[in-house]
Amino acid sequence: MSLRHWTRGARLSYALRNPVGGFARIPDAPAVVLRDLWPGNAAVGERLVRNRTEFDGVPRALKPGQWDDPSWPVSYRRWLQGFTWLQDLRELGADSARVRARTLVGHWLRQPPMERALADPAITGTRLAAWLGCYEFFAASADDRFHHNLMASFIMEARSIAALMPEAVSGWRALSALKGLLAVGVCLPDYPEFLARYLRLIDETLASQIHADGSHFSRSPEEQFQVVRELAEMLYILQMAKLPVPTALLDAANRATPALRALRHGDGGLALFNGSTERDPTLLDHVLSRASRTRVVAASLPESGFVRMTGGRALLLADAGAPAPAAFSHAAHAGMLSFEFSSGRQRIIVNCGSSQLPGWTEVLRYPPAHSVLDMIGASPMRIEADGTVANPPRVTRSHVTHDGAHWLEMTHDGYKRQGKGLYYRQLYLSKDGQSLRGEEKLRDARQGAPFCLRFHLHPDIMVEATPEGYLLHTEEESWQFLSDAIISVEESVYLGRGKVERTRQIVLTLTPPPAAAEPGPAAQAEASGAPDQPAGDAGKPPAGKGPAGEDGATPGREDKPAGETTTAQAGGKAEDKAGTREGQADLSRAAHAVQGDTVPAVAPEQPDQLLATPPGEQPPAPAPAGEQSAQATGEHDSAKAQLHAESGATGKPDTTAATPTGTHNGTPAGAPANAEPPLPRAIHWALTLVST
Q1: Beta-sheet strands, E only, within 290-363
Q2: Of the residues 78, 128, 274, 449, which has the fewest C-beta atoms closer than 10 A?
Q3: Across all residues in the chain, what is the average pLDDT?
């Protein structure tokens, strides 16, 4: 045991040895009555009444007195022990819900102090705030013994937070811990040490994780939301107690709320970067209105590197920054230079999102799950066994506007350090928002490498093939996608709405993918309308969407007719053990270890150069069907085919990588085994509004 852990344990033991502060009187009830601010889910409350839970799509039985289990994922443990589900029982509103809430709280209170799960002050703070916020619902009519035990627990558990902070947790979860300390401090004024401890810690805690532009150090829209929600609750608690608001707290809220607004799409949900999901727009509105009275949207987020481009009804959000610092990088994705695009309230081009489901968390962190260049068998950054990022790539950006139009130029060197070139992406959005164009290239590549460009589509988008490219239909508009590369449409998945949804992705390559075999039984079953993944498999990625297998073949591939190849941007097929923590960690370390230096930086603005070189004044014309390969590389057919071989010059599949199925897997027929892939040329593409 490290000295740090020993010291933390000693402080906690001392706090619990004197849990109610000597001879101080235990109050009969809170001096200030708080109200939980956020709406609950009556369906969740109904399940709790029946001793059932469902978290991240996984149903579980709720056993009396069981508050921990080694098999539980961390996210479920935090939810269960945090008692935020009290708001779901309150939303249900029935007497059975009130009785159930009191019973479950009573089960927790009956645990001896030394046996309670108090080592994580963020969970403890969340629980204390939930108890006080729902006190009137479950405790006001309880007997004297219940009241005494509850009030004593407020004191004891608040002392555990004071003893463990600030070292025990960091990031936005540190705010959860301090929120609980604040709530007990204002509701139990006979114990002024809790409020004093909060006031000593809050300024430093905020300064250590919120940039000057209001963005969070994690660069995650989800964590930005969590920060703003915690700030909103703190402001409410201080308001109810009629106490002055610390200047640092008010300033942080006024900076963080415009930053959160900037990371929303037209539908009101969050952009899907770095471990985020859409979130409920109504809840987002509620949180934002509580945190700040202003409705300002941040025009730019230079500290975090997100770029927001608007024109007409169109909105583009781009990840143009380096990964978060190591201490804040547990949710960081290798999606640098990826973007999302929406028109009005309809998302069109998206990233795949995030999930806590076993087998999905790690898979969704890598480039194939983003609308960005995917270098097959390589990752632009290394994710360590503990989930943090090591040796992040250097990222540059230059964003200028002229007469309402936007030019954005971005680069990262994550692949250059592997000899595969500097990834360069330039985007142009017209003033009216009806034309989005892009140029993609690998600069200074020392060797050819198999790659593709992915544009994941929102599940609500309908795709129609045309002689020139593809039409993307929303409920109100039609957009045409063109490119001078080879365009294919393949399967994808979307996890932005809390569940696994099938969708499509546009894939650009410089050579055609190899022809597939005749349809096999799995493909025929799917084509005939086979049902989605059964409920019992909710914890695993669907077949073809999960991590790579071990047999050396392309994992997860289902035989389909040519032109209907199945692609999982997440990787190969999930095996039985793919959902295990050990299997995922081993796979990620083997497949995505990337060496290199870390020099996060931002390029200086270069407006003249950018404005002089937009990605073309007209949408790029597609190459004729018979000439696309030749125009793509300018090499002989054998060399062009070899461009998409799995392991460069060997022509053998790379069994260590979680390779998307259906896209340049294996060596195409006729390609020499020792052919060197040619260096790639630039790819141009355009998305244009054609009808409304």
Answers
A1: 306-311, 314-319, 339-343, 346-350
A2: 78
A3: 80
